[in-house]
Specification:
alpha/beta; 2 domains; 13% strand; 5-stranded mixed beta sheet; Rossmann fold; single chain; 4-stranded parallel beta sheet; globular; 10 helices
Length: 291
Amino acid sequence: MESGKWMAVVAVLISIALVGCGKPAAKGNRMVVAASIAPLANFSREVGGDRVTVKLLVPPGSNPHTYQITPDEMEALSTASVLVLNGIGLEFWAKGIVDATGNPKLIVIQTADGIPVLDHSEGEGGNPHVWLDPIDAIHQVNAIRDAFIKADPAHRDDYTRNAARYVAKLKQLDAYIRSQVATFRSRSFVTFHPTWVYFANRYGLDEAATIESSPGKEPSPADISNAIAVAKKLHVKAIFAEPQVYPKAANVVAEEVGAKVVMLNAFGKPPRYDYIKMMRSNVQAMGEAMR
């Protein structure tokens, strides 16, 4: 990890001492759950229903690859019963943070554990964007269900029932995406950041090139030239970009090859985030460029 990130983490660790020793707490009769990113917070609310209060740590609009956790978020962790993470290196700040919360009863779940990891070139452990494949999202929902049951076994039936209901909706989402992707005339795309690897692998698309060589690093002229060359060779019609990392480089590539910049949202946007609606919107945007 870069020294700047570690210094920020150290500052947070010092500040958490001012919070005091954390103890798992509930708001009313609800179990407190902390989730790293909006998709996992949404999954947690679906599984927990009115049995949980979910605190989102990395707000929508922020880049989790570069986000620095705050003292307020550390305080939330000090009172949580469950911390829901993605894993595969997405939450770089998680190492050392959990011990610093003073919350020995905190259950930490890495929801991507057990999912075959793709694209080991992206960073520590591989590409972390598993939630963008709804079938992998089902795996994550079931992992959250199991963590909630471990933390609050008295309400096992509620968590099991809620998870099953949401999994059925995710299967419907998967069927919808398959029906839409089947209409795409173009199967290849270029993306600024390698966000859509799992989605592409599931639905038979080809992430032909990535403009950004590593998270948070401005693409070099060589990176851009390579993306242009690949896009021209494959007659790519879509350049995927995201609000969190929307770069001029995507426009440059699109203009050079006559493609369309497609704004997709992998992490959601406030105030009322809904994973299924987000994914349907993303697929509709893809279709406008790739049909």
